[in-house]
Write a structure and sequence with these properties.
The structure holds two protein chains of two kinds. Chain A is α+β, with helices and mostly antiparallel strands. Chain A has helices at residues 65-79, 85-89, 128-147, 159-169, 185-205, 210-221, 235-247, 276-284, 348-364, 375-384, 401-420, 426-437, and strands spanning 31-32, 35-43, 47-48, 53-54, 57-58, 63-64, 92-100, 117-125, 175-178, 258-259, 262-270, 297-305, 326-334, 391-394. Chain B is an alpha+beta fold. Chain B is globular, with a radius of gyration of 23 Å. Chain B starts with 24 loop residues before the first strand and ends with a helix. Classes of the chains: A alpha+beta, B alpha+beta.
Chain lengths: 442, 499
């Protein structure tokens, strides 16, 4: 859905009144500060040809689409190491891949899907153009293996047909919240790296000789050498991890949505007949965001999905007609320090439903069968609406939103201080640092 | 022209796109066409006088007239909805909306402060008249003729901007400008420096389809679909009137030179003027005479890099890379040319290289054809404020405004993320969110309460980067339009109502 602005504003009295021009879709809701959201649903083929050649030949037979994709992601999860090509791109906060086999139906029968849907969500810095270029160039072969079972996927290169494909399957969000909208991924990573060094430096600062202080201050501000690329996972390790992936007992639904302390909550709830526009209106007026009142939320999104898009070359002839619209809610949340369970961080839904005077609950009240007042039942309803995840990428796992914000603020303070005292001799620099940093809460 | 691998239909492509005019001055005349008939009458006249891209031979023309049309203009000319609907969104979106959301035109540069009719959907047709010969009167005569013919056709002049070249190809901040143009297939002979750097150390010409529709681009694709006929041999043109705060710039440069000087070793000693010029070169990545700092880390004592009244000695050598191993390890760290220097942001060459090549940069190139407006403030006048409006009429040509110009402007100049520079911005162009009135800390913060960045990292061979200052914007927008500069055949078809 998403709001739309009119291109008719460009029309002057002289322009012929008969020309009805397609309005430009306003993407403002896909942006939050320096971050941009991408949400793409693509229908998956029942049978697909592998994109690889074995001894110069393509396999003579097609492979089952969904199973092949699940196998690809299983392999990725088992072999992925600390640093990888996604990290090379360095501008992705969070990304998630999921396969929807059945639409959630917490209350009664659900729409039948003509094909399983592949859902890709990303949250990144920069523009669509730059993102897709980089993605296609750097992750080209990987993308081929992720999307080859999707109808109409033209391959990552050349880039333009791929961009057109993404654009025609992309949705504009109805609500987008990021806990630190002006902190880019690279800044978050750099600030989190700096923080412990800075804390230690601050402790020691007053006791140093001025010359030693100046040297240590310079070292503190010097970007650390890039970490050595980790060794690829060994064969035994891969086998062990594959076994672990196959054997692990994930809570359902929502399995696979945990990465370190981060959880990627995704729920798809059917909207009651005739409530679409009231819900869209409520979402448009959502200010402040209910997510802002839940400290463990890094990111939150709402999207009304009113239909699956098929207006692109290569779309399947058998199409899903949704019996109702759906409300897609996504949130990246941090679990409590001591949490060990693989499932949804226990109190998150409860916190979200209570936040900001219960405004989130009023949104879901537009959904079919959402319990009226019983919060426990509401939580159970949303748990049933959860989607599974096949891969979840976090640019900086294991930290809370507050930690990201505090680290970024601390890095800003240090940079501003360094600028203001850029030509101070060591003793003056030290005196100024000791005085000014006394008020810094690193 | 060097060896040509591709035959371009130069008679159907407008002049100044692929090869710049040796222009002395220019008039940018924006017209509104109140009716379809008035619009077609205006284009009929213009189609007869428009200058194409073919060689001039031995007799350069005295003037050159060119034509571009806004989206509102195409609608006003009666182009059918199916074609209008298929044009790129950035071109279709009202300029004021686009500028505020995608170009960061804020504060004094916000669209509500723009000059006259610019960016308000009122301008339909832009006629540019360039003086390409020595005769000032011929230029004045050509402008008068265009104005008279447009009036005759029923068009209304809604904005009139004049610009004139400064000595030594200078722009107002004092740099000889315009050397960083892409080396284009079928146009430029030698790809070195202007083309796309390849991982094996060679250079490749940039595909002409990146700048003119109807030819293959870097992806090997040619424009197709419902807009292909309208866009054939045309290009998208970005027109921006940018005010430059010369006094603010000189003050900031002096403060940075003073501070930076204290941190430099005394060997060899730099006099204040040399120091000032060194800081200038660090900010832009070129000395003021256009020589890249990568090619000359220091200049000889007494060498007049500022040019003063001297003529430009010639085109500087532009054949360099940031990561070139042949330069002894290259300069990826930015110790010679800072990572955030202006020319490194606007054309990162191999600096964003994925595996040493230009995959991340070759589809984000633009052809620039700007020209300054206003009098040059002589260097001797220093920092006294004369209150005059001066700046640059920024013009660029590209096949996709969103993929090319907007990426350079917004992601590369007005953000540091692509270069791992956090929220640092371009020293000259960046919108720094500081209080424009006081130059002090920001009166408004970013949405999450975070302060705007107010430093510019100058990397050094040893030690942490030295921070140059960034204050309120030194450049702000006074008006902007996105236009289509159509092929000449298409111009005739538009005049005949064939779209």
């Amino acid at each position: 859905m998403g709001r739309v602005t009119s291109a008719m504003a460009t029309r002057t009295p002289g322009a012929p009144a008969s020309v009805a021009i397609r309005p430009v879709e306003d993407e403002a809701n896909n942006r939050c500060g320096r971050a941009r959201a991408m949400t793409v649903f693509t229908p998956m083929r029942a049978w697909a040809r592998l994109p690889i050649r074995i001894r110069g030949r393509k396999l003579p037979f097609p492979v089952p689409g969904r199973l092949a994709t699940e196998a690809v992601f299983l392999w990725v999860r088992a072999t992925i190491t600390g640093s990888n090509d996604i990290q090379t791109l360095s501008f992705i906060h969070f990304a998630r891949w999921g396969i929807i086999r059945k639409l959630p139906s917490p209350a009664g029968p659900s729409s039948r899907l003509a094909q399983p849907l592949f859902l890709f969500e990303s949250n990144y810095n920069g523009t669509f153009e730059q993102y897709i270029d980089a993605f296609a160039q750097v992750l080209g072969p990987g993308m081929e293996s992720f999307w080859f079972t999707s109808y109409g996927f033209p391959g990552p290169l050349p880039v333009q047909p791929f961009k057109d494909y993404i654009r025609s399957n992309e949705f504009v969000l109805d609500h987008y919240y990021l806990a630190y909208p002006t902190v880019s991924t690279t800044e978050a990573v750099a600030a989190l790296e700096l923080r412990p060094r800075h804390v230690a430096f601050k402790e020691a600062a007053a006791a140093l000789e001025p010359a030693a202080f100046a040297e240590a201050f310079d070292a503190l501000r010097r970007p650390p050498p890039p970490p050595a690329p980790p060794a690829p996972a060994g064969r035994l390790d891969v086998v062990r991890r594959l076994l672990h992936e196959v054997m692990k007992k994930d809570p359902r639904p929502g399995r696979g949505s945990r990465s370190g302390r981060s959880y990627y909550f995704t729920a798809l709830a059917p909207i009651s007949k005739g409530k679409d526009s009231a819900l869209a209106e409520a979402l448009a007026g959502l200010d402040p965001s209910p997510f802002a009142a839940v400290p463990r939320v890094h990111l939150g999104r709402f999207l009304v999905v009113d239909s699956i898009k098929y207006d692109w070359p290569g779309a399947p002839s058998e199409r899903t007609t949704l019996a109702s619209s759906y409300l897609l809610c996504t949130a990246v949340v941090t679990a409590d320090d001591d949490a060990t369970a693989d499932g949804l961080p226990g109190t998150f839904l409860d916190e979200l439903l209570q936040a900001a005077g219960g405004v989130a609950a009023t949104l879901w009240k537009h959904c079919e069968g959402f319990p009226d007042a019983d919060r426990e039942a509401q939580v159970a309803y949303l748990e049933k609406c959860q989607l599974d995840t096949v891969l979840f990428y976090v640019g900086y796992p294991d930290v809370t939103p507050a930690e990201v914000r505090r680290a970024a603020a601390g890095r800003d303070l240090l940079s501003q201080f360094a600028y203001e005292h850029r030509d101070d001799p060591p003793a003056a620099l030290q005196a100024a640092y000791v005085t000014e940093s006394a008020t810094w809460d690193l | 022209m060097g060896p040509v691998s591709l035959r371009l239909d130069l008679r159907d492509i407008q002049g100044n796109i692929l090869r710049g005019y040796p222009s002395r001055q220019a008039a940018y005349l924006f017209f509104a066409v109140p009716t379809v008939d008035a619009g077609r009458a205006l284009l009929t006249y213009l189609a007869g006088v428009v200058r194409d891209a073919s060689d001039w031979g031995s007799e350069p023309p005295l003037t050159a007239v060119n034509v571009a049309v806004t989206f509102a203009g195409l609608a006003a000319l009666g182009v059918e909805a199916a074609v209008l609907d298929a044009l790129p969104d950035e071109f279709r979106q009202p300029m004021a909306v686009r500028a505020a959301t995608m170009l960061d035109d804020r504060h004094r540069g916000a669209p509500e402060h723009w000059d006259g009719a610019l960016g308000k959907g009122a301008a339909h047709v832009l006629v540019t008249v360039n003086q390409t010969g020595p005769d000032d009167e011929a230029f004045a005569g050509e402008v008068a003729t265009v104005l008279a013919e447009a009036a005759e056709a029923g068009a209304t002049l809604v904005y009139d901007q004049r610009a004139a070249g400064l000595p030594s190809r200078r722009e107002h901040f004092g740099w000889a400008d315009g050397f960083g143009q892409p080396a284009i297939e079928g146009v430029t002979g030698d790809p070195a420096g202007g083309g796309s750097p390849q991982a094996d150390g060679t250079w490749k010409l940039v595909k002409v389809g990146e700048f003119v529709h109807g030819y293959p681009d870097e992806d090997g694709l040619t424009t197709s679909g419902p807009t292909a006929a309208l866009l054939r041999h045309g290009t998208f043109m970005v027109w921006r009137k940018l005010h430059q705060d010369i006094v603010g710039f000189r003050r900031r440069l002096r403060a940075d030179a003073l501070a930076y000087g204290k941190t430099l070793p005394d060997d060899p000693p730099l006099d204040p003027d040399q120091l000032y010029e060194l800081v200038a070169a660090k900010i832009v990545g070129r000395w003021r005479d256009g020589v890249p700092i990568e090619e000359a880390e220091r200049r000889a004592p007494g060498e007049d890099t500022k040019l003063g009244d001297a003529e430009l000695p010639g085109r500087p050598d532009n054949d360099f890379r940031y990561g070139a191993p042949s330069d002894g390890g290259g300069d990826l760290s930015g110790a010679v040319c800072p990572v955030g220097a202006h020319i490194r942001r606007t054309n990162p060459r191999d600096a964003l290289g994925w595996k040493g090549g230009s995959q991340m940069t070759s589809t984000h190139r633009i052809v620039r054809r700007g020209m300054p407006y206003g009098d040059f403030k002589p260097f001797e006048e220093g920092e006294t404020d004369d209150g005059k409006d001066r700046g640059l009429i920024f013009i660029c040509f590209n096949a996709s405004i969103e993929r090319q110009f907007e990426v350079v402007q917004r992601q590369w100049c007005n953000d540091g993320n692509a270069f791992a520079l956090g929220n640092e911005k371009d020293y000259l162009l960046g919108d720094h969110l500081l209080d424009p009135a006081t130059g002090g800390p920001p009166s408004e913060s970013e949405p999450d309460g975070r302060l705007g960045c107010s430093w510019f990292s100058v990397q050094r061979p040893q030690g942490a980067p030295f921070p140059f200052s960034q204050g309120p914007p030194l450049v702000w927008t006074l008006g902007s339009e996105y236009l289509l500069m159509p092929g000449i055949g298409v111009l005739r078809q538009l005049a005949a109502g064939q779209f």
